[in-house]
């Protein structure tokens, strides 16, 4: 038996044990619905029928995008920095929702236009002052892309020491629905049209213009066929942004370390798709928090054959959906660990 098939077999055994455990709980069989499927998933991630996932945290990766020069967003890049400051002050949307969930939030500067002053909740992992304009040239150099992936993996390494087992991946970056759309299109093969939406707001030049710019960007990049890993790297390098690439690197390491990856909205899902393309199997650790109102998000979730936990028509990003989903994940964990068993036989 190969190591891989051995691992698969023990995962199947554990899944059976988890399902038996859930059947034996003090409830009608199956009555906790999709919470039971979630419990099986986190039991498999935690490697136990009574997993202890430790602390939850949300990381907000921030970066700026050169492609904003092409009129693809309704807001100027300075807004990235404004929101980043609110995240540090605890007053951004994600902070408020995370507070309701009792979850801490940290900001990762992956490459905003300008640095922020040092702060306890700020991880300075700046690769550059924003990406280049991908409509005209690659968003980043080979070295920058490799450094962003590595910085992401290194961020995850610290989480183990802090006993963080549930990580929400949020982002801020004016222009990043364009970068995410490009990355997702290139990695899934889904039609670009289905992945172009208003983002933070319809740009003044309209959605057809945004589509045209992104279509031109794909033509300009002319990504050649290659091995999956090389091509994924080139897709990330060509389209960016630093926050998406760093997030993807962090997710690959989180999966390898057995953490629950809480994927947020459209951009975070593009990051997860990149992570899966880099390290197949990463997606097994992903819990999809919600379906964003950004139209391309439903298309991506359908492509991945995953069902998100929530659908609240939110389209903020930042990790806002992840914040709301974390208590549900915690509930599934505690249900496995603390809920009583009903003695006797249980109907099938
Ligand atoms: C005030 C404000 C707060 C935000 N928080 C997250 N986003 C979200 O919108 C941006 C992406 O949309 P686009 O590609 O259309 O620029 C990202 O910053 C994303 O996190 C925000 C956007 C704005 C304007
Ligand atoms: O789905 C998201 O995460 C999203 C949608 C629009 C703008 N920013 C983020």
TrEMBL record:
It catalyses: 5,6-dimethylbenzimidazole + nicotinate beta-D-ribonucleotide = alpha-ribazole 5'-phosphate + nicotinate + H(+). Keywords: Cobalamin biosynthesis, Glycosyltransferase, Transferase. GO terms for biological process: cobalamin biosynthetic process. It is an enzyme of class 2 (transferase). Its EC number is 2.4.2.21. Pathway: Nucleoside biosynthesis; alpha-ribazole biosynthesis; alpha-ribazole from 5,6-dimethylbenzimidazole: step 1/2. InterPro entries: Nict_dMeBzImd_PRibTrfase (IPR003200), Nict_dMeBzImd_PRibTrfase_bact (IPR017846), Nict_dMeBzImd_PRibTrfase_N (IPR023195), Nict_dMeBzImd_PRibTrfase_sf (IPR036087). GO terms for molecular function: nicotinate-nucleotide-dimethylbenzimidazole phosphoribosyltransferase activity. CDD domains: DMB-PRT_CobT. The keyword Methyltransferase does not apply. Belongs to the CobT family. This is Nicotinate-nucleotide--dimethylbenzimidazole phosphoribosyltransferase. It comes from Hyphomicrobium facile.
């Amino acid at each position: 038996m190969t190591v891989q098939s051995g691992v698969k077999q023990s995962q199947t055994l554990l899944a059976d044990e988890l399902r038996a455990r859930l059947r034996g709980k003090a409830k009608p069989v199956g009555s906790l619905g999709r919470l039971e499927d979630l419990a099986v998933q986190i039991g498999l991630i935690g490697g136990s029928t009574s997993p202890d996932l430790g602390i939850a945290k949300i990381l907000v990766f921030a970066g700026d995008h050169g492609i904003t020069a092409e009129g693809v967003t309704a807001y100027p890049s300075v807004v990235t920095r404004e929101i980043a400051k609110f995240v540090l002050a605890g007053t951004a949307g994600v902070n408020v929702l995370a507070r309701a969930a009792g979850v801490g939030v940290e900001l990762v500067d992956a490459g905003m236009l300008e640095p922020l002053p040092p702060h306890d909740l700020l991880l300075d992992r700046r690769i550059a002052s924003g990406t280049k304009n991908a409509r005209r040239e690659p968003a980043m150099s080979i070295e920058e892309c490799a450094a962003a992936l590595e910085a992401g993996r290194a961020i995850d390494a610290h989480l183990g020491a802090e006993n963080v087992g549930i990580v929400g991946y949020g982002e801020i970056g004016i222009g990043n629905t364009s970068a995410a759309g490009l990355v997702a299109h290139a990695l899934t093969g889904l039609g670009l049209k289905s992945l172009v939406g208003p983002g933070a707001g319809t740009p003044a030049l309209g959605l057809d213009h945004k589509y045209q710019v992104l279509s031109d960007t794909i033509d300009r990049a002319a990504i050649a066929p290659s091995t999956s890993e090389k091509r994924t790297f080139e897709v990330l390098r060509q389209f960016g942004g630093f926050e998406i690439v760093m997030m993807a690197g962090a997710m690959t390491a989180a999966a390898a370390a057995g953490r629950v990856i809480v994927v947020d909205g459209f951009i975070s899902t593009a990051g997860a798709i990149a992570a899966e393309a880099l390290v197949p199997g990463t997606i097994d650790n992903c819990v999809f928090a919600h379906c964003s109102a950004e139209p391309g998000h439903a298309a991506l979730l359908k492509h991945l054959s995953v069902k998100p936990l929530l659908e609240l028509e939110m389209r903020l990003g930042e990790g806002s959906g992840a914040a709301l989903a974390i208590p549900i994940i915690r509930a599934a964990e505690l249900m496995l660990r603390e809920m009583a068993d009903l003695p006797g036989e249980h109907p099938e």
